[in-house]
UniProtKB/TrEMBL annotation:
Species assigned in the record: Virgisporangium ochraceum
Superkingdom of this protein's organism: Bacteria
Segments forming domain ABC transporter: 6-241
Name this polypeptide is given: ABC transporter ATP-binding protein
Cellular component aspect of the GO annotation: membrane protein complex; plasma membrane
GO molecular function annotation: ATP binding; ATP hydrolysis activity; transmembrane transporter activity
UniProt keyword annotation of ATP-binding present: yes
Amino acid sequence: MTEDVLTMELVGRRYFSDGPWALRDVSLRVPAGTFAAVMGATGSGKSTLLHCAAGLDRPTTGVVTLAGRTITRMREASLTRLRRDRVGFVFQSYNLLSELTVRQNALLPGRLGGRRVRGADLERVLTEVGLAGAADRRVGELSGGQQQRVAVARALVTRPAVVFADEPTGALDPTTGGRILGLLRDAVDRLGVTVVMVTHDPTAAQVSDRLLLLRDGRLVADAPTPDAATIASRLAAVSGAVAVPR
Ligand SMILES: Nc1ncnc2c1ncn2[C@@H]1O[C@H](COP(=O)(O)OP(=O)(O)OP(=O)(O)O)[C@@H](O)[C@H]1O
């Protein structure tokens, strides 16, 4: 049986004690080596789900396990260590330091955590993302697509169990975005990494294996990813008042 890299059990999140639930009773399992896409209308809870799953935010109710550990009540220091060692992040705004080089950016999370990455490992990851030979270039001189490659390299260099991506292609043109999605797909297929990606784009979601659909904070569908047209119609259904087609 494949190990679940992420599980959520009746997870709820509200930001104020008497406020609305941004996430309600979400239960799911993501096995190792899965590419999962999270979709839903704006405000449906996608980023909240991602942040609770990745240990960047604490749910109000329920239990989250990540890379085999229950993180819900984990102490902050242990959670930081788990994130550093087992998790990679790729966000829409690349979260890179433009004055530093590609190498310095890619190694920064490991450095901050006192972990050394071997030069050969960095070179291999840079080659995987198509940045061989660019290690000493300043990130500020690179194009948006190249910068997102650096973000992917940084997420992969510690060989994480899971990569969380929030709109990783949102700021890129379709061709460049397609290449970034290809890199993430490759990490799943060749390295066995699990990817959980929030996206608004049915074409982007098409690279995933599993489609998780949210409506008003509830998980209303969790099924193998269909073709782009079907994704678009399911998305339209959960964004309006129409029933979700199965
Ligand atoms: N830090 C916060 N404080 C208060 N409310 C928040 C906070 N973050 C999110 N919310 C609320 O929680 C709900 C879900 O927000 P979330 O950002 O998870 O949705 P989303 O599906 O990612 O939206 P989008 O597609 O617009 O990014 C929204 O009603 C939002 O206003």
